Amino acid sequence: MKNITMKYLIAGFALLAVLGCKEDERDFSYAQYGEGPSNLGLLFRVSQDNSGTVTMVPTADGADSFTISFGDSANSEESLVAGETASFTYAEGVYQVKLVAHGYDDQTAELTEELVVAFIAPQNLEVTIENSTSVSRLVSVTATAEFGITYDVYFGETGFPEPLSANMGDTVEYTYAAPGVYTITVEAMSAAIETTTYTVDFEVTEVLMPLTAAPVPLAPPVSVISIYSDTYTGVSLSEVNPNWGQSTTLAEVAIEGNNTWLYENLNYTGIVTNYDNPTDLSSMSHVHFDYWTPESSVATTTLGLKLVNTTIGGEDIEFIQDMTQGEWVSVDIPLTAFEAVNLSAISQLLWDSGDGYDGTVFIDNLYFYQDSPMSPPTAAPTPTYVAGTVISLYSDAYTNIGLSEVNPGWGQGTVLSEVQIEGNNTWKYENLSFSGIVSDYVNPTDLSGMTHLHFDYWTPLTTDPLTMLGMKLVNTNIGSEDLEFVPNVTQGSWVSVDIPLSDYAADLSAVSQFIWDTAEGVDGTVYIDNLLFYANAPTTAAPTPTVPAANVISLYSDAYTNIGLSEVNPGWGQTTVLTEVQVAGNNTWKYEMLSFSGIVSDYINPTDLSSMTHLHFDYWTPNMTDLGMKLVNTTINQEDLEFAPTLTQGSWVSVEIPLADYAADLSAISQFIWDSAAGIDGTIFIDNLYFHN
Questions:
Q1: Which of 459, 449, 412 shows the shortest CA–CA distance to 433?
Q2: Of all helices (H) and strands (E), which one includes residue 8?
Q3: pLDDT of the residue at 157
Q4: Which among 534, 520, 519, 527 has a CA at the least distance from the CA of 492?
Q5: 3-state DSSP of 320-331
Q6: 581-624 tens-digit pLDDT
Q7: For range 293-305, the mean pLDDT
Q8: Residue 7 parent element (H or E)
Q9: What is the CATH number of domain 549-692?
């Protein structure tokens, strides 16, 4: 069943008035190129003269023309451009009228509507009229009748005498300006002159309370001082809506099981925490609350929050103007806006509706929070590198190598402690100027097989923030070292750092010292986790093939003469990005975001693999778990896909797939397609892709 809005219907039947427009006056700029037609509609309008003439108004998003099949025995149809209507004269009967909408690039969509043509008035008219349960003053009308084709609804509101129309069984919606009792008339029409009407006095209502709970707050509990919220443990309140002469009434209601304050007749009201032990908000940055006020005459249009320091005197108020009605709204006010009050001892919070106006408002999640806390409210992100590609110094996610010294006494003022953040071990450096980590001088750490240094850091936004942070790698065996800095240190959030080891001008085959450095004279606080090295690319070339060239048909390898390829990674809708990179001087394909990707040899002269016995390729991946190769014979449209065994991460692996496994004619192959199964995206390096016997 369709839902017909006032705007849609007016636009549809307004087309009946423009049948005489010139062709060059039509504007099709609304067509949504690149998308198929959608939201199809076919509105009927029957002539009230016993002629059986029905006018049809087709509509659709993204359509520039239509074809209407009238459903008669002669299979009559008419083609229209967008903006035109069609008329057809029917004999009595039941017809299936089909609408085909045509869009950009020959895309189409279809809709079939049943049309009953009878030269008697509609019978057994049934009308359903309902108030919306979620939107104030929104009324829906649905009508059905035997022999009926369309119906008009007169909503009985002054200033809107014209009806809204719809096909039988569809729904009309209308929003009234004010609640009250209105006379609604429904007139049902068939192909006869006579119509059938239904009239009723209907009470239009407003939605006076939210149907859904306020949004669940996302601020970490460690950063919150809560006054009222089911999400947090709140401070104790000594008085709520105390008797200060206000008209306000307060009740607590449950909305979807969530406790919520309901203020009615709100002119002003107070909340008292504790006069003897007022609440210290000086470490907070914002006040938050959620409000909901109805779309009605009792809506609250202005709402202010006053903070009062009764210890030393002083108060300030901030107002919200032009409040949104009929939906939950989240409000966040910087506490810097309350500049006339000392926030270190707040005992009173007051709501004020401004100028004594009374209204209704629901309040939830009233709390203060620190947008830039002094310590991380959440643990660092959990790294996802495959263990076999990682050398870890400090992380709960991996087995760490042994460290002989951490923050050794090299004259620095740095203080290091280990803290728990959401159960995750984390290093906290205070007064960090520089600080060392030593693995093993006798058996230093070989990083030559790694490609990147990774760590996660968090530094506060306000107190003792760090502005520079670097890591020095030292090979003490030969006295080789280099220091690389993080660009543009970010405060107040966890940041993941990945520094290519190729940036280090040092011999990394025997590193024993790892030194934090904040640049000369810069001290600060920083939290560190997941300090590790990883490989996301091979550092050595793929193995050199040893199969004699005479026994090989090669698609891609420096070891052989390759056949000609007409397309590599052609645009078939995949996410895959392909680049050719040099690995230890060897040309190698690097596939990123690999879902699938094609290789085309020659459609006119396809590749004959019938004399070969095996498919071979070498791969290196940091994160993929499966990879298959599909062979396609486009001459006879035959294909098959075979997968390599479960992939190994972090090292070159040679794959041999017997061609006997392929249930396809291999005498004329023109397409070779990588597939990573179920759309899984990843990174993989490929070399030495060939067939051999």
A1: 412
A2: helix 6-14
A3: 95
A4: 527
A5: ECCCCCCCCEEE
A6: 999 999 999 999 999 999 999 999 999 999 999 999 999 999 89
A7: 91
A8: helix 6-14
A9: 2.60.120.430
Over the chain, what is the mean pLDDT?
91
The pTM score is 0.48
Q: Which residues of 393-409 are buried (b: 16+ CB within 10 A; e: fewer)?
A: bbbbbbeeeeeeeebee
pLDDT digits (tens, 9 = 90+) for 107-140: 999 999 999 999 999 999 999 999 998 788 999 9
User: What is the C-alpha to C-alpha distance for residues 182 and 591, in angstroms, rounded to an integer?
Assistant: 67
| Cross-sheet strand order for the sheet of 434-438 | 405-406, 434-438, 513-517, 470-475, 480-485
Name the one residue in this structure whose structure tokens are 């043509």.
Answer: 117
Sign of CA dihedral 634, 637, 643, 649: positive
Dig out the tokens for 213 from the structure: 């709970």
CA distance 4 to 171: 5
Distances (CA, A) of 576 to 82, 198, 492, 604, 678: 39, 62, 35, 26, 14
Angle (nearest 5°) at CA 172 between 171 and 178: 135
Which is it for strands 150-154 and 138-146: parallel, antiparallel or unpaired?
unpaired
Identify the pLDDT of residue 356: 65
Whether residue 62 is predicted with pLDDT greater than 50 in this model: the reply is yes
3 state SS for 591-615: EECCCEEEEECCCCCCECCCCCCEE
Superfamily of domain 1-207: Immunoglobulins (2.60.40.10)
Assign domain 387-534 one CATH number from 3.40.50.1000, 3.50.50.60, 3.40.50.150, 2.60.120.430.
2.60.120.430
- Find the radius of gyration of the CA atoms of the chain: 37
Query: What is the CATH topology of the domain spanning 221-369?
Result: Jelly Rolls (2.60.120)
Please state the φ and ψ torsions of residue 56, each to the nearest 5 degrees.
-120, 135
Sequence spans of domains, the chain: 1-207, 221-369, 387-534, 549-692
Topology agreement, domain 1-207 and domain 387-534: no
